Amino acid sequence: MSKISRDEVAHLAGLARLAVTEAELDTFAGQLDQILDAVAKVGEVAADDIPPTSHAVPVTNVFREDEVRPGLTREQALAAAPAAEEDRFRVPRILTEEA
Questions:
Q1: For 36-69, how does the pLDDT look when each residue is reduced to its tens digit (9 = 90+)?
Q2: Shortest CA distance to 81 belongs to which of 70, 94, 72?
Q3: What are the two backbone dihedrals, phi and then psi, of residue 84, each rounded to the nearest 5 degrees?
Q4: Where do the domains of the chain lie, and which CATH numbers do they carry?
């Protein structure tokens, strides 16, 4: 695999509008080269006889079944509210313009 050059790093830094020193160009070139090598190795590992997976272990749903249960009535909920108006919770206005 070819190494990434300082010029390529400088070009990428320019595209990203990053101020990079000469010393950083050398450092980043080496680091980016290592990253590209690691990504290439990951691509080599995948084999045709291994099925793709999203998890390393089987995942099962641990949630309970949905069941209808009684809740608060509108009157009970509004009774606990600091302010109510027209069967709704009244809250302070947060926008200055009309909706």
A1: 999 888 877 767 777 777 888 888 888 888 899 9
A2: 72
A3: -140, 150
A4: 6-45 (1.10.20.60)
